[in-house]
Design brief:
148 residues, alpha/beta, five-stranded mixed β-sheet
Amino acid sequence: MKTVDIYTDGACKGNPGAGGWSAILVFGGREKELFGGEAVTTNNRMELTAAIEGLKALKEQCNVNLYSDSQYLVNAINKGWLENWKKKGWRKADKSAVLNDDLWKELDELLAFHNVEFIWVRGHDGHEYNERCDELASGYAEKLRTEQ
């Protein structure tokens, strides 16, 4: 299987507010930038959407290193929260409903197909791809905000 690096970020102007997401796919010395957004959303939804859209862009099953500055996203996978939510019928430990379960379910389907390692990177710390993702996501969110 091919190994692809995916860098993701989400941004929101207000929370909730206008939001943007971005993903940069890197494979074999080539890069592909993806971005989009929603007029009214939350930062966490944009972080999840970035990961989903990055994985959906892959045309075949891959090994993926997915880099994100979202602890919400990375911890949910690496600390087993997602698996526990599924076992508990999409409920958290306190029995309240999991927020953004529609996106978590979509991401879970993609994780069943691809072999994905989630890697946390510190945001706004000079990491080239993280900074580029932030610019794309923030730029799209700002565009949506000014259109309203």
